[in-house]
């Protein structure tokens, strides 16, 4: 089992501006192209266009055993291979980067991403584990996430047995056109890579994945 968790964040740009900006998504803030780089990756998180703006901080509930998941959705994992990759897209289908998930779908990775790389939280977050992520966020920084709407993508909704229907993205007309396609397309693209990625050393893993995602963004500019 190799999980590809895709998060979609709402960006405020219109599609035309986004297409012009796609090429710079994998460049760092100095304008260096970090796409097909083969240097050793120092960290597991790679979001060149979204630098950290603050630290995550520590919260009272961190590490406490009493935190019961809000929704007990089904999941499984491979006993020895890496649990998976967390990727971030905006609603226009632009990939903003990725991160290695070392533990199975912990809301800590998406929480840390949202809390440390945005001055103001995105208006909408569509994610496989959105229900548990929402509870995790509100239990830590309710003021920061007060205006963010969380929804589960249509592809993974069937896993959420007994979940609140307020998280079903299909019920919101504004999410209808967006989410299913991006999550499905990304999952099917990355599936082609996963058997090779699973057996690579870290440097090759990062170089290969960066190059792949950089090229997916590049192809968007060619087709539009
Ligand atoms: Zn966008
Ligand atoms: Zn749920």
Could you please describe the fold and organization of this structure?
This is Transposase. It holds the Pfam family KDZ. This protein has 224 residues and is an alpha/beta fold. It has one domain (3-223). 32% of the residues lie in helices and 13% in strands. The chain has six helices and six strands. It has helices at residues 15-21, 108-117, 130-138, 173-176, 179-197, 202-223; strands at residues 3-9, 45-46, 84-90, 95-101, 124-126, 149-151. Strands 2-4-3-1-5-6 form a six-stranded mixed beta sheet, with helices on both faces. Strand 3 and strand 4 (95-101) form a beta hairpin. Mean pLDDT is 79; it is low at 35-42. The structure holds zinc ion (2 copies). One zinc ion (ZN) binds at residues 71, 73, 131, 160, 163, 167.
Compact summary:
InterPro entries: KDZ (IPR040521). The chain has 224 residues and is of the alpha/beta class. It has helices at 15-21, 108-117, 130-138, 173-176, 179-197, 202-223, and strands at 3-9, 45-46, 84-90, 95-101, 124-126, 149-151.
């Amino acid at each position: 089992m190799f999980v590809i968790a895709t998060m979609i964040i709402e960006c405020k740009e219109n599609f035309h501006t986004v297409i012009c900006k796609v090429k710079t998504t994998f460049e760092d803030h100095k304008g260096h192209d970090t796409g097909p780089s083969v240097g050793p990756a120092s960290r597991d998180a790679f979001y060149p266009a979204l630098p950290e703006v603050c630290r995550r901080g520590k919260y009272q509930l961190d590490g406490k055993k009493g935190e019961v998941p809000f929704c007990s959705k089904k999941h499984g994992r491979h006993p020895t291979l890496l649990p998976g990759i967390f990727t971030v897209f905006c609603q226009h289908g632009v990939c903003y980067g990725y991160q290695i998930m070392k533990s199975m779908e912990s809301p800590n990775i998406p929480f840390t991403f949202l809390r440390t790389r945005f001055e103001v939280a995105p208006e909408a977050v569509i994610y496989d584990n959105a229900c548990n992520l929402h509870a995790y966020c509100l239990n830590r920084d309710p003021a920061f996430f007060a205006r963010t709407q969380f929804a589960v993508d249509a592809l993974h909704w069937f896993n959420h047995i007994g979940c609140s229907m307020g998280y079903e993205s299909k019920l919101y007309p504004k999410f209808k056109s967006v989410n299913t396609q991006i999550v499905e397309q990304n999952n099917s693209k990355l599936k082609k890579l996963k058997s090779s990625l699973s057996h690579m050393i870290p440097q090759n893993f990062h170089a290969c994945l960066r190059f792949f995602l950089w090229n997916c963004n590049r192809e968007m500019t060619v087709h539009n």
